[in-house]
Write a structure and sequence with these properties.
This protein has one domain: Velvet domain (Immunoglobulin-like), CATH 2.60.40. The strands form 4 sheets. Strands 1, 4, 8, 9, 10, 13, 14, 15 and 16 form a 9-stranded mixed β-sheet that branches. By secondary structure, it is mainly β. About 11% of the residues have low confidence. It is built from 2 helices and 16 strands. The radius of gyration is 19 Å and the shape is globular. Keywords: Nucleus, Transcription, Transcription regulation.
Length: 195
C-alpha cells in the first residue's frame, strides 16, 4: 500500500489500494464420537449481516529498518514494543480519516460470493510507517453469556508507508480485487501505474 493525495487544501493521503477484510464464518457441529467438527459456511448469500461490523484502528510502526513489508504481527508489534491503546486511539481519531466502521457487503469474485468489509475512503494525515488493526463485532452475539458485546476477531494488516508529495513513487496498477470493487464502490482503478 502507498498513500498520497492532496485533498481540498488539506493534507490527506488516501490508502491505495483500499483495505478490504474478508469475513469467513464457521459452524461447529455438536460434540459426537469424534469430537466437534468445524466447517466454513458454504453459502454466504443466506447469512444475515445486520449487526456485523468491522472497525479499523491506525497503529504506528516505526520499525523502518525492516525490509519485510508484509510481516503480520497478530499479537505483538515490531520489536515487541507494545503500543499504548491511548496512542492508537489518538491516531485513529486525529490522523486516520474516513469511515472507520463498516458493514459487510456480499461481493462476487472468481465465481464465489464472499462477505467483505471494504474501507473505500480511508486516508492518513501524517507521514510515516503504519499498520491497520481490524476488529470484528457481531452486535447481536456475545462470546460470554451476560457480558457486553466483545470483539469476535482481530487481525493486524501489513505495514505501509505514507509518503510526502515529493517522495511519492506513484500509484500501482489496480489489483483484480480493486477492479471488482470498482463496480460497487467509489474506488479508482488503473490499468497502468501513474505518479
Amino acid at each position: 500500500m502507498n498513500c498520497n493525495t492532496l485533498y481540498q487544501g488539506e493534507n490527506r493521503r488516501s490508502i491505495d489500494p483500499p483495505p478490504v477484510v474478508l469475513l469467513r464464518l464457521f459452524e461447529r457441529t455438536p460434540p459426537g464420537q469424534y469430537g466437534s467438527l468445524e466447517y466454513e459456511i458454504p453459502n454466504y448469500e443466506n447469512v444475515g449481516t445486520m449487526g456485523l461490523l468491522c472497525a479499523v484502528d491506525l497503529i504506528p510502526d516505526n520499525d523502518s529498518d525492516s525490509g519485510d513489508s508484509d510481516r503480520v504481527h497478530p499479537f505483538s508489534f515490531p520489536g515487541d514494543v507494545p503500543v499504548a491503546e491511548s496512542e492508537i486511539a489518538r491516531l485513529t481519531t486525529n490522523v486516520l480519516i474516513g469511515s472507520k466502521v463498516v458493514q459487510p457487503h456480499l461481493i462476487e469474485r472468481n465465481g464465489q460470493k464472499n462477505l467483505m468489509f471494504v474501507f473505500s475512503d480511508l486516508a492518513v494525515r501524517n507521514l510515516g510507517y503504519f499498520r491497520l488493526r481490524y476488529r470484528f463485532f457481531d452486535l447481536f452475539s456475545t462470546a460470554v453469556p451476560g457480558k457486553d458485546t466483545t470483539i469476535q476477531a482481530e487481525c493486524i494488516g501489513g505495514r505501509f508507508k505514507v509518503f510526502s508529495t515529493k517522495d511519492f513513487p506513484g500509484l500501482q496498477v489496480s489489483t483484480e480485487l480493486t477492479k471488482v470493487l470498482g463496480k460497487s464502490f467509489n474506488v479508482g482503478h488503473r490499468t497502468d501505474s501513474k505518479k
